[in-house]
Write a structure and sequence with these properties.
heterodimer, A: about 140 residues, 4 strands, B: 5-stranded antiparallel β-sheet, 4 helices, 5 strands, elongated, HotDog_dom_sf (chain B)
Chain lengths: ~140, ~150
C-alpha cells in the first residue's frame, strides 16, 4: 500500500510491515559507513559477547534508517520533517525483526501526517519506538 | 541524589560545542542502502536531488558530548535515542557547522532506580548561516543508588 497525497491517508492505517536486513554483513557495512566499526560490537558476535553484550548489535541509527526507508516506500512523494526514535533495548544482528508504523494524526491543512513507529523482535518485544511527522502534497 | 533543577538552570540552552562537517555523498548513499532505502534521492549520488539521509545526520557527533564543566553523574551511560528534524535538504560536499547545546535534562524513576536523561541538540547550518537540520541525541544515565 502506498499513498501519494494527504487525501490518500486514513487515520489508523498501518503501513505494510517489513523485515529489515539485520545480517552481520548489513550491520558491518552500516557501521563502517558511519565510523562505528572497529570495536566489533556491530560486526562480530564473539567480540560483542566479550564486551558483555548478548551478541552483535544493529546500530541504533540503523534502526532509524529502517523506519525512514519504510516511510519512503509508503509515501514515495512524502518528506520526513521529523523523526524521533527511542532505543528501548538492543536490536540483535542476525535476528528477525519487524518494522511497523500506524497513522495516529492527520493535519489536512498543513499536509502533515504523524506516524507511531516500532521495531519488534521475534518475541514481539518492542526494541525501538518513536514517531515521525511526514509532509505530503495535497495534489 | 543529583539536583536536576540545578543542572537545568546552569546548563540548558548554552552552546558548548561548535564542529565543522562535510558529508561524503558515497558514504551517505552506503548508509541509506544498508538501511534498506530505495529512494533515488538518498541512494544515488548522481541524482540531481540527492541529499544526506537521516541516519547520517544523526551520526554527526559534536567534539564534546557535554559542557566542559558538567559534573560527572556516575552510573551507567547508554544511548537512549536519536531524533532528526529536516528543515532543508542537506547536500553532501558542502561545509556544515554543528552548534550543540543541552536542550533538556530530566529524570524518570522506576523499579530499578532513577534514570537521568540528557538531550544534546545539534543545529546544522550551511556556510551562509542557513539552518538546515537539527539532531537530538538522548543520553540515559542510570543513577547509582548511593548518588
Amino acid at each position: 500500500m502506498t499513498v501519494q497525497t494527504i487525501s490518500d491517508v486514513v487515520f489508523g492505517d498501518e503501513l505494510t510491515p517489513s523485515q529489515p536486513d539485520t545480517s552481520l554483513q548489513a550491520t558491518r557495512s552500516f557501521a563502517q559507513a558511519v565510523g562505528y566499526s572497529g570495536s566489533g560490537r556491530f560486526e562480530d558476535h564473539g567480540k560483542a559477547r566479550a564486551q558483555g553484550l548478548p551478541g552483535a548489535l544493529v546500530p541504533g541509527i540503523m534502526g532509524m534508517g529502517f523506519l525512514t526507508s519504510m516511510i519512503h516506500r509508503w509515501a514515495p512523494r512524502g518528506k520526513i520533517k521529523h523523526i524521533d526514535t527511542v532505543f528501548r533495548a538492543p536490536v540483535l544482528a542476525d535476528h528477525e525483526h519487524t518494522v511497523t508504523a500506524v497513522v495516529t494524526d492527520i493535519d489536512d491543512e498543513n499536509g502533515e501526517v504523524v506516524l507511531d513507529l516500532t521495531i519488534k523482535n521475534e518475541q514481539e518485544e518492542t526494541r525501538v519506538f518513536g514517531t515521525a511527522t511526514v509532509q505530503l502534497p495535497s495534489t | 541524589m543529583t539536583d536536576i533543577d540545578d543542572l537545568r538552570s546552569k546548563f540548558l540552552d548554552l552552546e558548548f560545542d561548535r564542529t565543522g562537517f562535510v558529508i561524503d555523498a558515497e558514504q551517505s548513499a552506503k548508509v541509506a542502502k544498508a538501511s534498506g532505502e530505495t529512494r533515488e534521492a538518498f541512494i544515488d549520488p548522481t541524482d540531481p536531488n540527492f541529499e544526506a539521509c537521516a541516519p547520517i545526520l544523526a551520526s554527526l557527533a559534536s567534539g564534546r558530548r557535554l559542557p566542559i564543566d558538567f559534573p560527572a553523574l556516575g552510573g551507567i551511560s547508554m544511548d537512549g535515542g536519536k531524533a532528526v528534524a529536516c528543515i532543508k535538504p542537506v547536500r553532501p560536499g558542502i561545509k556544515l557547522t554543528g552548534k550543540t547545546h543541552l536542550h533538556d535534562i530530566y529524570a524518570k524513576s522506576g523499579r530499578s532506580g532513577r534514570m537521568i536523561f540528557l538531550v544534546s541538540r545539534m543545529q546544522l547550518y550551511d556556510e551562509s548561516g542557513e539552518h538546515l537540520a537539527t539532531t537530538d541525541s538522548r543520553q540515559v544515565i542510570r543513577e547509582r543508588p548511593d548518588k
